[in-house]
Amino acid sequence: MSHGGGGHAAELYPEEQIFAAGIGLSLVGCYLAAILAPYGLGMLIGGLLASAACVAGANTVRKVAAYGLGTGVPSIGMVSLGMGTLSAVAGVLISGCFNLPYWVAPILTLIISAVIGYIVGRLTVNPVGMKIPIMVRSMTFLSIAGAMALLGFTVAYVGSLEPSAYIDGALNNGIMALAFIAAGMAILHPFNACLGPNESHKRTLTLAVACGLLTWFVFSVVKLDVVSIVVSIILWAIVYVKFVKMSLNDACAVLHVPEIPKKEE
Amino acid sequence: MDIVSLIVPLIEITAAGAIINASVHFVPVGGAPAAMATSTGVGTGTTQLAAGAGFTGLMGAAAMAASVGLSPTGIALILLSGAVSSMIMLGVTMLIGQLIYVFGIGVVPAADKCEIDPITKDPQKPYVTPGTTGHGVPTVCFVSGLIGAALGGLGGALAYIALRKLGLDAGIAGMLAVGFFFINAVLASYNIGGTIEGFHDPKFKKMPNGVIASTVASLVFGIISILMVLSV
A81, A58, A69, A70: which is closest to A194 by C-alpha? Predict the structure, then answer.
């Protein structure tokens, strides 16, 4: 198995802390988005808090992909969103089927995604034979993060947790597909871009925050929510400039050359 | 909803997962080394190649499903449409990749995992540059890739049909099928562990493990899908 990562750099915060904070915030975000939607604040608050789930997912990708997956970092980001799609849709639809109050949908999503993540994680270890010690735990975490990111952004867009409104507003018009790939990019891209021998947790996390905010921006544009568009693009610009400065500082040398110098004979 | 109309889609979903997983093992995936023409196959990861072909198959199937409906003839047409769309997609990918490898980089397509090509009977080993594991997409890999794409499209279309039979709307069924496809494609790519040339590769013998994993995962997926539609 090839090593795609660059070992484990020192961690700024433990993985569990970031994960718990990210999932907690996005769970609160789902409810706030549904409650505040009539006041026009659904995307502003819901989108911001949903991007926390992207950061949590990106941090878990960093942890597990550093062992070297052998198939590239994007694969684990995509499986995370694959499990997340099922859990998010199932969470909303199942609550509608069994006459449960519809506000249990985010909690159902959380439970279903944890179960699916655990099962798929066990399958990657047992018949398939992945030799990564934290595989089961990471798959569970990733499944939850993917599901919460998807649910968070789609609920922020729809502004309701009610199943029929959700089906019309997020599934039949294809917003779910946008959430799939945009949130997927936010989860898989940060470590994929930053991996290497000089990878630092702070830099990867900064990029993860930037990617989460950019996903929020994409959804604000789709919803045509002017306040969210302005706030998200300003926050993204601040974080991204910080990331670029950090990269330039950490680089061995920064050369500004107009073209590749010709090799002299 | 009676029990038969729930069990049949469940079996179809489970079979679809196993077919998708098997299909990925046929696709010649070169990974990063192939991007530098130092390994046989197309230069990208398993997930991306399988997903590209699988989604095209799913689109073809969905477009066909919209016009023919879910009668037995319709189902046959949907499956066929999925398989052919997928084959076209992967065939074009491999062909254009091959053109770039041969005329752009200037390597000879050669398989590393077999002495002679099982289909054309051409010798392969003398053309493999020392220190590399083959180049380009030789005939055997191309044929293997087409078989894989056909199976992948078939699996994706079957999953879509099963979800539609459960009574889910086209949008929900399509989205769930995409998620379903990714879970199975990634399980297969973890089973392969990087690169594979096709059905002549020794790694191809690991396929049963991946198929078992996908069958179990698809069964869980199917049960949750059924819970979604139980008491609508």
Answer: A58
What's this model's pTM, rounded to 2 decimal places?
0.89
ipTM: 0.87
A139 touches B at CB < 8 Å? no
CB proximity B176 to A under 8 Å = yes
pLDDT by residue (tens digit) across B36-78? 888 898 888 877 887 788 788 888 999 999 899 888 899 999 9
- In chain B, what residues touch A89 (CB-CB under 8 Å)? 172, 175-176, 228
Distance CA A175, CA A217 (A): 14
Contact A124 B187 (CB under 8 A): yes
Q: Would you list the domain boundaries of chain B?
A: 4-215
Rounded Cα gap, residues B100 and B219, in angstroms: 41
Instruction: State the Cα–Cα distance between residues A62 and A52, nearest whole angstrom.
Output: 15
Among the partner-chain residues A75, A82, A86, the one whose CB lies closest to the CB of B224 is A86
DSSP letter at A168 equals I
* A150 lies within 8 A of chain B by CB: no
Angle between helices A135-158 and A201-223 (to 10 degrees): 30
Do residue B209 and residue A1 have CB atoms under 8 angstroms apart? no
How many CB atoms lie under 10 A from the CB of residue B67? 10
d(CA B95, CA A84): 34
Q: What is the per-residue pLDDT across A184-243, written as a single tens digit (0 to 9) for each?
A: 999 999 998 988 888 889 999 999 999 999 999 999 999 998 999 999 999 999 999 999
- For A72, the closest chain B residue by CA position comes to B45
CA distances from A123 to A168, B121, B188 (A): 34, 39, 11
Cα separation, A171 vs A176, whole angstroms: 6
